[in-house]
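I hope you will forgive my troubling you with a question about protein structure. I set the record out below, with my sincere thanks for your time.
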Amino acid sequence: MDNTIAAALLGLLEGLTEFIPVSSTGHILLAGHFLGFDSPGRAFEVLIQLGAILAILGVYAGRLWSLFSSAPHDPAARRFILAVLLAFLPAAVIGVMAHEIIKTVLFETPVLIASMLVIGGIIILIVDRHAPTPRVEQAEAITLPMAVGIGFIQCLAMIPGVSRSGATIVGAMLMGVGKRAAAEFSFFLSMPTMAGAFAYDLMQNRDILDGQALGNIAIGFVCAFFSAVIVVKWLLGYVSRHGYALFGWWRIIVGTVVLLALAAGG
């Protein structure tokens, strides 16, 4: 398939899967594998996340403005900002330390990615049904110790196929956070996490990105932005009513199909 068309499809896939617990990176890497998509330094898969970042910033612009404008005189706002930053720190440190092995080994192992989709799907189904009774129903009420715990759990998502949003949502629910609040905290945490990953990966790969690679990234970025806006506006209402079982089954089906395709020589 032409790389331009593949970049557009992968960008759409990034936006559709970034904020739901199915692993956007896992889906993009597997789709790229079967499409024969060429990505120098695997930079495309990380850098198009900027589209999803801008989507969440756009949808939450009013909420963010209210949060930061009230922070100087509102202790609750300051505490919530601190909670997000504390949750971000483990991924920032470990991500830099493990960057090379993540990009050169884990990103290049389709069997591992598909297996993580299946395993993660099973975990989501179990937690969705048997999570502790929620004690926290608002993202802003997540405590600092909870935030630190969620931050360390988020580091599991450095294994492609685990899912950043899936790890943070499951971790939060196991700590007694409600389904909607867990998703919303995952939204807020995605902003510094994805922005940091984008900046670091761009710095690491700036010398190998030629005009074609940058063009593909631009196409993927635009497609990711528009599809992510749709998902962000839809997701909270859906999980409030139906939970996360759909995403667990999706992961299991996709992971199983990919494993079978790989076994057949795909």
